[in-house]
Fold:
Amino acid sequence: MHFVDAKGILSAQNGMNLYRGCTHGCIYCDSRSRCYQINHAFEDIEVKQNAPQLLEKALRSKRKKCMIGTGAMCDPYMHCEEELRLTGKCLELIDRYGFGLAIQTKSDRILRDLALLKSINAKAKCVVQMTLTTYDEELCRILEPDVCTTKRRFEVLQIMKENGIPTVVWLSPILPFINDTRENLEGILDYCIQARVYGIINFGMGMTLREGDREYYYGALDRHFPGLRRKYHQKYGFAYEIASDNNKELMALFYARCREHHIVCDTGRLFAYLHEFPESPGYEQLSLF
Structure:
């Protein structure tokens, strides 16, 4: 990893990325795409070492409280967080100044900051988002090799529920010819139902591929699924949106199960929820459980 001094930390939408790059090794990671201009080895993590100072300055200057988001581009709980605790320091500031938090991760390292998450949720609102793609544990270890598996993430979701923290699952991406099966979807949905998640974000059964991401993904296919790259080339060419042949059937199942168990699955409603700061503490959480 290497360290830099950032010029700013919050986007116009109050999102922040404390790191650039990732060490989780997911074979499909869109953040590898060249359009994001990560001009260093993806696993050589760029650390925004002055992020806490920048964040404190930004929070103190805001006239109104709002939700602060992190994890959309790079996971805030990758391996270096164990040593650096940059995410934890920023959560302390969000808690101290009474802001809300919408945080997204695949890692059970988030449990290290459970006390902070509970405190933020008690004062304002905290939403923990976890990505679930692959129910089968062995397949998950191939697709997402250097982060905890889906079963452990399900356990994290349960712990959040037990502590009154609302959760949202990102069910994405679903990889054609690999995990785009009814069995995979049913397994993930069963986890979501048991963990009583507030909502599930899904943009359709498939994935996206663009320059940078595409080459890495195809290399992984060659290593783990010989011959599958050729099948992708023949069917999709260089398309950006890669839809599963099973999309219609799987989406029908997805919507039916969400309706049956009162899980929010409208993406517009969920994004509004992630950005909406409560008028009074606990306003939304009271309806969750």
